[in-house]
Amino acid sequence: MSGDIPNPATRSIRASEHVLRIPAFRRLWNAMSFSSFGDWLGLLATTALAQQLAGGDYATANFAIAGVFIARLLPSVILGPIAGVIADRFDRKKVMVIGDILRTALFISIPLAGNYLWLYIATVLVECVTLFWSPAKEATVPNLVPKNKLESANQMSLFAAYGSAPVAAIVFSILSVSATAVGATIGLENYTAVDLALYLNALSFAFSAITISQIQIPREHLKKNESSPSLGSSLLDGAKFISTSKIIRGLIIGMLGAFVAAGAVIGLARTFVGDLDAGDAAYGILFGAVFTGLAAGIAIGPKVFAQFSRRRLFGAALTTAGLLLVILSLLQNLVIALLVVLFIGAFSGVSWVTGFTMIGMEVSDEMRGRTFAFVQALVRISLVAVLAISPLVAAAIGEHTFSFGEAVLTYNGAAFTMLGGGVIAALVGILSYQQMKDRPGVSFWSDIANALRGELGSITNPTPSGVFIAFEGGEGSGKSTQAKLLKGWFEEEGQVVTLTREPGGSTLGNDLRKILLANETGDISPRAEALLYAADRAHHVYSVIRPALDRGEVVITDRYFDSSIAYQGAGRTLSSSEVARISRWATESLYPTFTIILDQPADIGLQRKENADRLESESIEFHNRVREEYLQLASFDPERYLVIDARKPIEEIHIEIVARIREKLKR
Q: How far is the C-alpha of 289 from the C-alpha of 141, rounded, in Å?
């Protein structure tokens, strides 16, 4: 089968290769790749130049580097909406070509001027030009490729934007260690590596201008006069939506925390490297390590953590990145620091791609654009704030030396500030995790255990508004009786209740029930039996359970997928994880809010049965294995399961169940 159906990664690669066969898009992609490379190289060069112009003063260096980042971010907060209008009302090709020419001239001017004032002025102007260039490019792409290839085109655009960062870092590091030789070769003996990097950056924008000028770009948009919503309107609409969505609130909190930590790292990275007695080359490598990890996290993370709930993965990845940042701030070794930075980038990439994927999945189409606008505005504002504050904090803290016996450790303000950023990111990750728990009764560690066993799956469906309760247990344990009593209690509380069972909760289920339980059926292959139960469960969820939950009802089922894990897994001695995986796929990872296991010795339950069906007729060893599997499932996830001794009086069991459900629903 694998030869007939390519995996998603293969399909994605082939689609990306195919979209580059479109001449106009290929030229635009080449221009994007070189201009993105130049932009990253320019960022490295301007921050390094700011540090050089500081003249060795620690506080001044922090302020100078942060000033470069603030100069790049501040215009977008103010000019973002205007830039979008320009892209819709003017010739986009001219906007991009003129923008690239202006950026070429501005980057050439920075090393020629060689002072703080022009560095900041030119940086602001470059960012202003980029704000007009980017939306023109984004609006152009859909006009160059068919609609069915737009997703692949966007993927390639992201690759051009972020994949060029490590390349720029490598080039900057090479220039840093070979500036004299390179300068002599091209006749620029008196220039530094930073100057050479800025000239190379300017050259990349010149190439982009020439390339784009040769592309035929449609101009139909000029015939229309559609106004874009203002930043204020976008923020207001986004805020209204966010206030009603717990999931989106968790995402926003997490993303802001991530960028608070990122701002501390970005703003202080050059100073931090200097504190480790390293120069521009090491700074370039550190910068490249961050983005190499980021790219790896984006590309590989969702596959590595495929068995983990996306909603929980977001907060968990952010928390991990924060803790790693804390570790980074304490390190005194550059090599180990680079390795830690790589993992920080990877977990940040996992959090980044998970967060934006979830916004696309959780937010309706009509609200998606405004929500993204709200997120991007908040992110930029938080970055500006952190980049402005972090050097002040670092400079105020200064240098401190600690003695531990014969060991003497010196930490500067950059390390302490990054430590604070890591703590903030970890705390925000925990808060975001709590906000977005898609199964409130399931512990984090049981999630990890289930994911490692392949029994969890990537839960991406919205949490149903109803309450879902499953009764489980061996034969003759009183599940049906307790399910009916619980239904009555919920109805007394004013709830609408759907009482169902497996197999047999639907018309198709009744037919399958006859096949599965009738003694006349005889022996069934254990694997076939497991698949028949999964088929019944898939249709049961599709036709009965999920519709009732979507209506806000309480659903009580007599047996659910834990029965398959216990009976077809342990009872039939199949792999429990494989049986669980089948049920997870069949139910689209719909887990009960609460599972009640009525436990008793197998022989007691079997004695209560007068006319045993096909499963009830199995050996006592079979039923003992079933019971042990139920107890093991409950031990793995004690928050979701309630195990009750089924030998207790019926009313006492009912009271205990109601008390536990009351407690759970209050959380």
A: 30
What Å distances lie between residue 499 and 355, 479, 504, 548, 552, CA to CA? 36, 12, 12, 10, 14
The set of residues, in sequence order, having a beta carbon less than 8 Å from that of 19 and lying 6+ positions away, is 25, 145, 149, 152, 153, 156
Confidence grade of residue 102 (pLDDT, cut at 50, 70, 90): very high
pTM beyond cutoff 0.90: no
CA torsion through residues 230, 233, 237, 238, sign: positive
CA distance linking residue 93 with residue 27, whole number of Å: 13
Cα 619 to Cα 76: distance, rounded to the nearest angstrom = 72
Q: Looking at the predicted structure, is the pLDDT value of residue 651 above 70?
A: yes
- Of 2-11, 103-112, 247-256, 327-336, give the lowest mean pLDDT range: 2-11
**Cα gap 324→302, rounded to integer Å:** 20
314 and 354 in contact (C-beta within 8 Å)?
yes
Distance CA 90, CA 132 (A): 11
Does 246 or 632 have the greater pLDDT score? 632
Mapped onto helix, strand or coil, the DSSP state of residue 62 is helix
**Domain 229-437, CATH among 3.40.1390.20, 3.30.70.360, 1.10.3720.10, 1.20.1250.20:** 1.20.1250.20
β-strand pairing of 641-645 with 497-501: unpaired
What are the structure tokens assigned to 369, written together?
A: 């654009």
Inter-helix orientation angle 334-362/365-397, to 10°: 150
One-letter identity of residue 494: G
Q: What is the Cα–Cα distance from 359 to 356, expressed in whole angstroms?
A: 5
CATH of the domain spanning 457-665: 3.40.50.300
- For strands 400-404 and 407-411, give the pairing: antiparallel
What's the rounded Cα separation, in Å, for the pair 320 and 324?
A: 6
CATH number of 1-220: 1.20.1250.20
Domains 229-437 and 457-665 are alike in CATH topology: no
Find residue 594's DSSP bridge partners: 469
The DSSP code sequence of 155-214 is: HHHHHHHHHHHHHHHHHHHHHHHSHHHHHHHTT-TT--HHHHHHHHHHHHHHHHHHHHHT
Residue spans per domain, the chain? 1-220, 229-437, 457-665
State the Cα–Cα distance between residues 339 and 630, nearest whole angstrom.
43
Query: 394, 268 in Cβ contact below 8 A?
Result: yes
Q: How confident is the model at residue 228 (pLDDT cuts 50, 70, 90)?
A: very low
For the chain, the farthest-separated pair of C-alpha atoms sits apart, in whole angstroms, at 99
Kindly list the distances between the CA atom of residue 229 and the CA atoms of 283, 328, 370, in Å, as whole numbers in the listed order. 40, 42, 9
Contact 52, 107 (CB under 8 A): no
d(CA 342, CA 297): 10
How many Cβ atoms from other residues are within 10 Å of residue 143's Cβ?
14
User: Residue 567's closest CA among 502, 611, 650?
Assistant: 502
Nearest to 301 by CA among 259, 347, 255: 347
Q: How far apart are alpha carbons 594 and 80 in whole angstroms?
A: 47
3-class state of residue 472 by DSSP: strand
Integer Cα distance of 123 and 279 in angstroms: 23
For residue 22, give both structure tokens: 């479109």
